[in-house]
Amino acid sequence: KLGDSLQGAIKKIAGGGRIDKRAVDEMIKEIQRALLQSDVNVKHVMDLSTRIRERALDEKPPAGMGAREHVIRIVYDELVRLIGEGTPLALSKQTIMMVGLQGGGKTTTTAKLARYFQRKGLKPAVICADTDRPGAYDQLKMLCDSLNIAFYGERTDDPIGIVERGLGELKAYDVKIIDTAGRHSLEHDLIEQMETIHAISKPDQKLLVLDAAIGQQATDQARTFHDSIGVTGVIITKLDGTAKGGGALSAVSETGAPIAFIGVGENIEDLEKFETDRFISQLLG
Amino acid sequence: LILDENDLEGPLWDLEMALLESDVALPVAESIIDAVKDELVGVHKKIRANTSDIVETALRNALIGVMSKEMFDLDDFIANATKPVTIVFTGVNGTGKTTTIAKVASRLKDAGYSVVIASGDTFRAGATEQMEKHAERIGVKLIKHQHGGDPAAVVYDAVQHAKAQHRDVVLADTAGRMHTNVNLMDQLEKICRVTPPDLVIFVDEAVAGNDAVERAREFNTVVPIGGSILTKVDMDSKGGAAISIAHIIGKPILFLGTGQKYGDLVKFDAGWYVDQLFE
Ligand SMILES: Nc1nc2c(ncn2[C@@H]2O[C@H](COP(=O)(O)OP(=O)(O)OP(=O)(O)O)[C@@H](O)[C@H]2O)c(=O)[nH]1
Ligand SMILES: Nc1nc2c(ncn2[C@@H]2O[C@H](COP(=O)(O)OP(=O)(O)OP(=O)(O)O)[C@@H](O)[C@H]2O)c(=O)[nH]1
Ligand SMILES: [Mg+2]
Ligand SMILES: [Mg+2]
Fold it and tell me: In a mutagenesis test of the B interface, which of A31, A102, A157 is the best target, namely the one with the most B β-carbons within 10 Å?
């Protein structure tokens, strides 16, 4: 489950049972290239390499474990530490607020999540709090109507009022999901708007939706969202392309929030639980 | 003094890291740095000259070279082309195609051209409504079909309308699609075969990392990309994806999208771009 060049590098590590320093360095270089090409934060890749190298050279393999297997264990262990385990959302009454950068997949994922809760027997409802993007109301309403999911939106320019009135109207529903407009860290008035929506809706979950192809920007953006409203979960979308999602990982380490779900396509059913093992083997090419 | 590999290693590594941190795809950064190394090994350096400065200048020039390849001016292109000029916009999901078309339409209208927009995204929820609102605000004609219709038919229709009504430019929107989706890539190829456009513009975003290379290359094998537009440059991004894209398909970046309003479209300038990369 590791890429060819990484497999090759690891093979050279312990021909004679003792760890060859130069082979470890070659393996580290392969890991670095794989992680950098997967968009993992450059500093994280460098820190990770240093830790892996130290452990590979200093730690004695546990009884019965070959040197090579021990090194693979270390690499895997360090990556799990960076990525964490996936934690799907609890199947209980809650309010969820979707946030993220422009075009990341919030609206589509809102509909996917609503469908997920509907299938699990809960009554979901969706609020469209995006009054900026032309057609946002139509997009989300169309998705909800096709699934018979309760939808609240207004063709007004008052996102705060919409959320207040929406939550008022939808009291009978178990899970309320609030879709918000895309925004980034330099749009201060939009960040403030997000904080206001957060303050009045007091959501149990604040999910940061990120495109799997996002590069080094992910770290700063995640930090801004987290400092602003406290992110409780990350959703990585568009993993059905060729992007590895390494950038979104930085969001995990910045926010300390687990990856709740992944998006693997444009259709409503294209929502999957996050699996660490599979993700790591994709990351290592 | 003659520069050798050892003198260059440190400065080249630092610059490679800087490129990677600016979102230049790894294979692109490596290839550019290698070219700079080949160029500098064996070069004479004055005793008091700073190796790091020499390397940085060489890299700057290499990057300007990559970014200025096959430069062309869209305004000149449209001015000189037989009307109606048809431009198809394509790219993966969410990169800003629809918004960019609105910006281009607004710009062309201000320049005195008559513009028709083809609402070629017949798949995504709310796509036509989105394009319709933009067309209404800008004051340009929109050609649209039923949800679920054939996008190639919408583009064909728009071009026929433009010919009949003597319009200057047709801007065709298409649905976002993953280069890994064979059916959608076949559909894209068909859209560009049924009504061969005068220009295909690839739209991608400045915040994309290494995947920018993958998708630009794959799209370019399916349709002939004539130029790209890089959006969301206002996202505090160095936008290294521009270098990745220009390098892999050898076609220029035409504009930068710098926000969500119609005026947020800036003509690409290689010198300015490389300067801000080095800031
Ligand atoms: N292939 C693929 N496309 C996706 C996925 N999730 C969302 N999309 C597509 O990505 C594009 C953007 O999705 P939206 O849901 O509109 O994104 P958004 O974050 O709401 O965008 P803004 O509201 O403008 O910020 C659409 O074309 C979606 O169909 C995914 O997992 N895979
Ligand atoms: N900040 C910023 N946002 C942008 C820019 N260009 C587009 N956007 C936003 O990005 C989001 C997606 O834009 P769209 O035009 O719907 O993207 P698209 O490529 O047509 O998306 P699909 O058709 O779903 O694939 C919207 O919220 C736009 O307002 C830009 O230059 N800067
Ligand atoms: Mg949205
Ligand atoms: Mg679109």
Answer: A102
What's the confidence (pLDDT) of residue B191? 97
Which ligand 2 atom sits closest to the C-alpha of B99?
15
Q: Given A134, A212, A241, which is nearest B133 (Cβ)?
A: A134
When pLDDT is averaged across residues A33-44 and rounded to a whole number, the result is 92
Q: Distance between the two ends of chain A, CA-based, in angstroms?
A: 9
Mean pLDDT of A254-261: 92
The mean of the pLDDT values for chain A is: 92
Beta partners for B228? B202, B253
How crowded is residue A189: how many other Cβ atoms within 10 Å of its Cβ?
A: 8
Antiparallel, parallel or unpaired: β A94-100 and B85-90: unpaired
How near does any CA of chain A get to the CA of B171, in Å? Answer: 18
Number of H-type helices and E-type strands within chain B: 11, 8
pLDDT at A75: 87
* In the predicted structure, residue A116 carries a pLDDT above the cut 50: yes
CA B24 to chain centre: 14
Peptide bond into B84 cis (omega under 30): yes
d(C-alpha A249, C-alpha A282), whole Å? 13
- Give the tokens for residue B188: 């894209």
Query: How far is the C-alpha of A248 from the C-alpha of B23, rounded, in Å?
Result: 14
- pLDDT reading at A1 higher than 50: no
- CB atoms closer than 10 angstroms to residue A20: 15
3-state SS of A98-136?
A: EEECCCCCHHHHHHHHHHHHHHCCCCEEEEECCCCCCCH
A204 has pLDDT over 80: yes
DSSP B86: E
User: Could you tell me if A251 and A222 are in contact, meaning their C-beta atoms sit under 8 angstroms apart?
Assistant: yes
Ranges of residues in chain B with a pLDDT under 70 are none
pLDDT digits (tens, 9 = 90+) for B158-191: 999 999 999 999 999 999 999 999 999 999 999 9
A118: left (phi over 0), alpha (psi -120 to 50) or beta: alpha
Of all residues in chain A, the one with the smallest CA distance to B178 is A241
